[in-house]
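[scheduler] slot 2 assigned
[scheduler] job type: sequence-to-structure, two independent chains
[scheduler] chain ordering preserved from manifest
[runner] begin chain α
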Amino acid sequence: MSHPVHTTIDGLVQRPSPLSARQTADRVESLVRERGLTVFARIDHAAGAEAAGLALRPTELFIVGNAMGGTPLMVSAQTAAIDLPLKILVWEDEAGQVWLGYNDPVWIAQRHGAADSPVGLKLRAVLQQLAEAAVQQT
């Protein structure tokens, strides 16, 4: 089942998840690894906030990718390296809705003057498939 995609923030693709933030984040990590990508980091911003005595709803950031995917985009536009590796964010909003979001790789390519590069479309397809699988109820 396809979920609506929201793009209220320039370049950011957002998908609602029917799962908890933890379940969604765990699925993201598992799916990234299953697809042969590297999880360079999983950052729990809420835990960081709590350690500093602050409150933040569940918010986890993943830094993911591999050289075969990102390097061709950097060859087309080396400044794209500022936006790579790719990032996936899982968060719970003030209404309790869980979201999965990522920067659209086509937007990243356009941002860096590589709009004609086919790499953005390939990376977009990978993230779309990953996001769709992560937010499906089993």
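[runner] end chain α
[runner] begin chain β
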Amino acid sequence: MAYYIVLSKLTDEGRKTIKENPQRILEVNKEIEKMGIKVKEQYAVLGPYDFVNIIEATDNEAVMKMSVDLGSRGSVQLLTLAALPVSDFIKQLKKK
């Protein structure tokens, strides 16, 4: 399994949706999990993005499909970054 950081920015439609139904955030998480992706952590943040999510997925293709599905709804824009735990990063650097 691989880790990814997903930065999400709500559109006007997305802000309207969660204002009327804040539980929609958790409903989307369940939809993501049905795609085989686990939401490990989720934070609402201030600044240029509205949410930071740490997810775990089998591969880039699974995350790509999730991004296309969520983005096509018109309620959110995503920026996804592949992530590697620092302990794994150090192990890789020590390999010769």
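[runner] end chain β
[qc] chain β: The chain has a mean pLDDT of 96.
[scheduler] slot 2 released
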